[in-house]
Amino acid sequence: MHCPFCHNPDSRVVDTRIADDGASIRRRRECTACKKRFTTLETSSFQVVKRSGVVEPFSRNKVVAGVLRACQGRPVTDDQLAVLAQQVEEQLRSTGVSNVSSEEVGKAILPFLRELDEIAYLRFASVYRAFNSLEDFEAAIATLRGRAQEQAKPKRTRSKKRAREDAPTLLDD
Q1: 39-44: long-range contacts, CB 8 A cutoff, minimum separation 24
Q2: How far is the first Cα of the chain from the last one, in angstroms, to the nearest whole number?
Q3: Which segments of the chain does DSSP mark as H helices, in order?
Q4: Residue 125: is it exposed, middle or buried by C-beta count within 10 angstroms (0-12/13-18/19+)?
Q5: Which residues form a coiled coil (predicted)?
């Protein structure tokens, strides 16, 4: 790291701390030549490759802005959108690659948005997946209904007779 004061290429690390956001590291450095101190901020490189081939840094704000249009008029708070953007970034970073396509970002948004608001999910999916007909919407709605029915099914419980048979008795000791 070059010193910002005298441009000496050598400096030593005096202190290291995790930044408030938890995604970067702050290092306090001292120049070995002029002895002045300065701070550096280190973050991991994570970039999005757009369809046009342009590469740009991943931005949670862009995720929020894209999803915000789908959530217009829906009972979704800014905090919920911020959490969604964080979840999307964490999920994408967990893949271990430093470059992801914009298509992968869209795919990563869909499951989190479906859990947050189904109507916003349908709106976002209709643009992202380029719905061309009512059949596309019907298929997406049928999938949502199927998931809702699966989640609504009661868990199988043991019968009372079986529960009595499995219950410990005084004689079991």
Answers
A1: 40/1, 44/93, 44/98
A2: 70
A3: 60-70, 78-93, 102-116, 118-128, 134-152, 160-166
A4: buried
A5: none
Q: What pLDDT score was predicted for residue 129?
A: 80
Sole residue written with tokens 């829906």? 74
CA distances from 81 to 72, 109, 110, 129, 160 (A): 12, 11, 13, 21, 45
Instruction: Give percent helix, percent strand, percent coil of the chain, each to the nearest 5.
Output: 45, 20, 35
Task: Compute the distance between CA of residue 125 and CA of residue 167 in angstroms, rounded to an integer.
Answer: 50
pLDDT tens-place string over residues 112-154:
998 999 899 899 888 878 788 888 888 888 888 888 777 777 6
The C-alpha atoms of residue 120 and residue 153 are separated, in whole angstroms, by 24
Q: How does DSSP classify residue 133? A: S
Position of tokens 């973050």? 43
Asked if the model's pLDDT at residue 160 lies above 60, the reply is no
Pair of tokens at residue 105? 């970002």
